[in-house]
Design brief:
two-stranded antiparallel sheet; mainly alpha
Amino acid sequence: MKTQENGKTTEVSRGRKECVSEPERERLGFVSVQSQINGIEQIGTGSEDRQRGNTTRSGKQGETTSGKVLERLELIENAYLDYVDDQQQHLEDRLVQAKKQKEVFKLAVQALKQEIYDLVSTEELQNQE
């Protein structure tokens, strides 16, 4: 896709480019065939992570209190429940609309059937005379 910016055409990608580098065993961990238990591979961390410890939960930058976690959980819960409620309302509205359309259809079919019966009755009366 191309766009123009300041009178110059520039190339713009429509999606993200795949950029997957080789795994770094020191950072990403490893899978050891020797560490299988019941056929399930056990995953361990690299030696660098073991020496550093878990930096995501320790240190002042990443401090998380139980109140903040609970607050985030409640935000997620409320957002999801709002989404589900919106979808439910949408489905209920569609159901009401479908029921109305069904009634309109049934009335139209009934009117056509009555018209056909009337035509057949009229033809039979004319044939009997």
